Structures
1.
Amino acid sequence: MSTLSLVSWNVNGIRAAVKHGFVDFLKKEKPDVLCLQEVKISASARDRAVFDFQNYTEHWNSAQKPGYAGTAILVSEKLAQPIVTNGLGKPEYDTEGRVQTAEFEKFFLVNAYFPNTRHDLSRLDFKLRFDDAILSHLKNLTKTKPVVFTGDLNVAHEEIDLANPKENDGNPGFHPEERKWMTKFLKAGFIDTYRFLYPKKIQYSWWSYRFGARRRNVGWRIDYFCVSDKLKKQLKQAEILDKVMGSDHCPVTITLSS
């Protein structure tokens, strides 16, 4: 039985990631598909850059604002190439390069970088509107074929998903409204692959740069692979590669039978 390996990583700037071993990671892991968030590179700067992503077809969705947000999908040239579309058809999100949809033969892949609500919660309403817009998009896709959904969702769903839940109750990324949306999303016919396979395992995918948080493993699990219920039986593995450096996030992965 053949398998498909997918990796997702908020690289916090693709140029910085390349300087810190990204290409070596790509050559070592050899994923079939790699989804990136927060690439932080404009289309014009990307044209000037020379990235050594050999054997991959690149699909970029840069934000209009230079050095901000943005997403990308790298697809192995061994695969039949998907049709990739950028955005949700809503300019307030699409100008920030937050969503990509790739249509493969048997499923859709959606790569997303969710807004951060900011320390003062000034972008909470913006994020909640984005949440609902992307859920509507995902539901529409599932009418045609199953969905693999990945990215930095900027929310820890349950207390097990962050090191200090009591202290962070109501804070950005652990606000009740954000968590409530995540529950609603999962009830809409999707599974959180990591938590499905490991109901009680504690691992994190993001750490603050402050106070030696990563060294002390004071982190949050805010990067996800979720799949339609229909793909549950094809899920073979889900991992958090928390030893991989190069960003304040680490890669997350799944393996599906194909």
2.
Amino acid sequence: MRASPWWRLLVVAMLLPAAAALTPCHAATDPPPDTPATLSAMRLAHAAVVGVHTQAIEDARSSQTLGLNRSGSGVVIAPDGLVLTIGYLMLEAQQIDIITEDKRVLPATAVAYDLATGFGLLRSLLPLQGVLPVKLGSLQDLVPGEALMVATGATADGEDSDVSMTRLVSQRAFSGSWEYHLDTALFTSPPVTAGTGNHSGAPLFNQRGELIGIGSLLVMDVMGENRLQPGNMFVPTDLLKPILTEMQQFGSSRQSRRPWLGLTSKDDGGRVQIVRVSDDSPAAQAGLQAGEIVLAVDGSEVHSLEGFYKKLWARAAPDAPVRLTLLHGSDIKTLELQPQDRMLLLKKPAGI
């Protein structure tokens, strides 16, 4: 039987000073964390963590890669029951439930999905009595090696919420294969691989109980540079602060209105290789094929996913046709695609 989260919190709080002392990035003059204060901050933060369970619309585009039923975590960030999570959990969802620490299953509605950052916002339709929203922290205060806490929410089938200790390994850019890029993401290790899978959307807290990130992925290269070390990638909440009001008002941020081609790609030794072409996408309609190499966007060479995405998104007329120069075997060809607005293609639940 798994230990109670409160006992785990106590153990984590006791380990934090030792973890900090072993970190070479901490100056010798830095005072050790105040364990009672840290435990109190953790308890308050943990109380705001919820489980998230969603069911997508039957014919949702995203069901091909994410499935129809999805489970993860989220955290309350406002007194009105606003919950921050990772957006792919609620993408095209027709039913959303949140599960409180005491196993209450409450209906929720979608508030926003931000394609650019990956954040999702939900709101409980019933009062979250006794739950205080967490404060948003900043990655500016973090140093590599710092001990942090990850909390995962309870599940509808009876699994308890849980907490784990991890450490910050790096802050660096991240390019996703699915036309996604962050200039700064947080990478932690050891990895959080909760048996429930609820690390998706799991909040990452500093030792003051402030929210600094939302869990997105389990990765195998937290150090980058092709060094094998498993861990997690978190989207920093610094990215949420300037767009939070906009997301609540409009369901997304302006930066989410960007051209989409429907490609899954990867960096391949200074080249961008197409791995998969989404059905009924601009790329499929233009005849792009898996295995082809993207050499240029509108005549401008690209050598990485980051460069590919940024050239695509920075065009003066994002809705205008785009020319991709491709290497197919030993042949070079140019195809013209008509980009689409991904946000307009998604099936939207009530509330967005």
